[in-house]
Amino acid sequence: MDSATLRIEGQYDQLQSVRDLINQAAENAGFSSKECYACQLAVSEAVENIIRHGYGREVENKIQVTVSTEPGVLNVELTDDAPPFNPTNNRKERQWSIDDPPIGGLGIEIIHSIMDDVEYSRESGRNHLSLQKKKRASSESTD
Amino acid sequence: MDSATLRIEGQYDQLQSVRDLINQAAENAGFSSKECYACQLAVSEAVENIIRHGYGREVENKIQVTVSTEPGVLNVELTDDAPPFNPTNNRKERQWSIDDPPIGGLGIEIIHSIMDDVEYSRESGRNHLSLQKKKRASSESTD
Amino acid sequence: MDIQTQEHKRVVVVTVQGRIDSATAGEFEDTLNEFTQQGKNNIVLDLSNVDFISSAGLRVLVTTRKAVKGAGGNIVFAGSSEQVLETLEIAGLDVLFEKYSDREAAIGSF
Amino acid sequence: MDIQTQEHKRVVVVTVQGRIDSATAGEFEDTLNEFTQQGKNNIVLDLSNVDFISSAGLRVLVTTRKAVKGAGGNIVFAGSSEQVLETLEIAGLDVLFEKYSDREAAIGSF
Ligand SMILES: Nc1ncnc2c1ncn2[C@@H]1O[C@H](COP(=O)(O)OP(=O)(O)O)[C@@H](O)[C@H]1O
Ligand SMILES: Nc1ncnc2c1ncn2[C@@H]1O[C@H](COP(=O)(O)OP(=O)(O)O)[C@@H](O)[C@H]1O
Fold it and tell me: Exposure winner among A11, A133, C82, D59, fewest CB in 10 A?
């Protein structure tokens, strides 16, 4: 199992390096380019949320990103010092029509729809978010 | 002095070979590409007129095109058996505004504005139209 | 001569390739008439690949312009070749047609 | 992120290159707001060179769509990258935006 850790300041200009790390790891795990993109998106959503909602503003607060891979599996763990927030709670079923589409609340849904497993824990005053995605067998041929 | 003669049926599908001949001759005379195009246009107008107005319809009536060149000079002579028509007569000064532009009568004006010399004669029951253009000194540098 | 047409919501685009002279002006005219008779009077002409046009072609342009302007439309150019511009200039008719750098800008002009 | 805008008579074209995420969505939104505040509600978006868009970008798309639709306009796509389509699909929002193959067709749709 390969793994890597990145510590970033909680600032939006750090997002791309997080995505680059995730993309590299997803490629290593043998994911299709579509799956690699989806993983970047899910993790970006989570990190954007930590910065925007967790830390509340763009200040110098650290976020730790740890990725580990084995063939066909990508694990990402995000750790931050912001107030507790559990994105696996409070998910409301949304009903929307084309005339009244949702304006917000997309980020968490995106994370859940991309990742196979989303787990949250609060430990030693920190938020830990674990995301796991497994390669789809069917996508091997299409990408 | 180089010269060449082309005899065509008075049909529109022959126009391009006339223009090719003129273009080649104009190039030989050392004309700029703009001048070459203008010569093709003037002669095409004359031949299109012979077919449309002279012979009146697309029938098998011959038109003879003779080109001769010397450096800086292109001479074209068009001969046809259609009823007499002298395109150097009856040129009316046109006044037009942008709201009421001319619909017809452009062909003969185009010929006169391109060619330096336009001469008509009727000989042995044939129309002879002689067109001459001289290379402009000023255009050498611009093309 | 080769003619392609494309209909957008309010604008039709007519793309011509090759030569417009007495041999082909009729077909060119038919294409344009078909649109104007359907009340499609916003016309973009792409003549960037026309390598020869004589007054037979200009006549079509001028009559079509008259028709569409009379119906509240317009006919504008989206790119035209050197040759088309040269013929228009020699005939003194270049002022009649608004010229745009590309099809996008021409479509957007309506 | 790089934004270019082009104003036609009835349509504005906004071309974005790069990434639209929380770092850049604000600038993207400002650009669009500037147009809608001027009553320019027919918007063509060319996102064919956007290589990443997160929900921060989608939010701008959805709010702008709401604004322009409310004002009788629309916001349509003229070409969008695989990545943009993928994000839209994952979010289930791909049905919201008419997609045209190129800018010409998108401009012509108004
Ligand atoms: N890391 C976080 N810390 C605190 N609150 C969060 C966090 N992530 C999400 N939230 C809360 O959950 C809501 C929904 O988040 P999300 O689905 O990403 O949509 P959006 O960011 O558009 O509101 C947010 O508006 C915010 O109130
Ligand atoms: N070769 C010709 N034979 C007979 N009549 C001609 C000939 N060329 C021109 N004409 C007459 O001169 C008129 C003007 O010709 P032209 O300037 O080419 O414009 P158009 O062909 O558009 O009418 C024609 O309408 C026709 O009546």
Answer: C82
Count CB pairs under 8 A between chains A and D.
63
Residue-wise pLDDT tens digits, C68-109: 999 999 999 998 999 999 999 999 999 999 999 999 999 999
CB A18 within 8 A of CB A54: no
Q: Which pLDDT score is estimated for A141?
A: 43
In angstroms, the CA C103 to CA C96 distance is 18
3-state secondary structure of A85: coil
Q: Name which residue sits closest to atom 10 of ligand 1, judged by CA.
A: A53
Q: Does domain C2-108 have CATH number 3.30.750.24?
A: yes
The complex's ipTM works out to 0.77
pLDDT (0 to 100) of residue A49 = 93
Do C21 and B13 count as a contact with CB atoms less than 8 A apart? Answer: no
Residues of C in Cβ contact (< 8 Å) with D110: 9-10
Q: Tell me the H-state helices in C1-110.
A: 25-37, 55-70, 82-91, 103-108
Which homologous superfamily is A2-134 in? Histidine kinase-like ATPase, C-terminal domain (3.30.565.10)
Pocket test for ligand 1, best of A43, A49, A96 (most atoms within 8 A of CB): A49
- A53 in contact with ligand 1, CB cutoff 6 A: yes
What pTM does this model have?
A: 0.81
